[in-house]
Amino acid sequence: MKIIFPLIIFLAFSCKNIDIESFTITDITKAYEYKIKPQKPTTWKIIVSIKGEIDGDAKIVLTSLTKENSSSIERLLTSGKVEKTIQSDWYQNAGKIEFIPEGCRKGYLKVEMKFIR
Q1: DSSP-based three-state secondary structure for 105
Q2: What is the pLDDT of residue 5?
């Protein structure tokens, strides 16, 4: 009994809540912007997974927006199969993900965001 009670307390407080949002970019010839809605309660980490295939180069930009400023993380995507991940602290309530193609004519990308709180 002495071991079980601390174990139960540890497990109760170590469990994380994860919210997931996703979208698919089917017309990769055009720039695309996805607005990240404010999360409640506030999250502390974001994991963005980008998977798919493109026939040109492109950029994915994750931008956090606050009243005071903004910060961005950029990943370059090269022609062929795409499997990229962006992980970052995320204390902001809002943000955006931008897709900026550079010579893409065909392909698709699936973007999944996990908000950990």
Answers
A1: coil
A2: 52
3-state secondary structure 30-91: CCEEEEECCCCCCCCEEEEEEEEEECCEEEEEEEEECCCCEEEEEEEECCEEEEEEEEEECC
- pTM surpassing 0.90? no
Instruction: State which amino acid sits at residue 36.
Output: I
Q: What is the pLDDT of residue 7?
A: 47
| Cα dist from 29 to 10, 18, 78, 107, whole Å | 49, 32, 14, 9
List, in sequence order, every residue forming a beta bridge with 23; answer none if it has no partner. Answer: 111
- Alpha carbons 54 and 101: distance in angstroms, whole number: 9
What are the pLDDT digits (tens) for 55-71?
A: 999 999 999 877 677 78
Helix, strand or coil, per DSSP, at residue 16: coil
Q: Could you tell me which of 86, 21, 19, 28 has the C-alpha nearest to residue 52?
A: 28
**Mean pLDDT confidence for 37-56:** 88
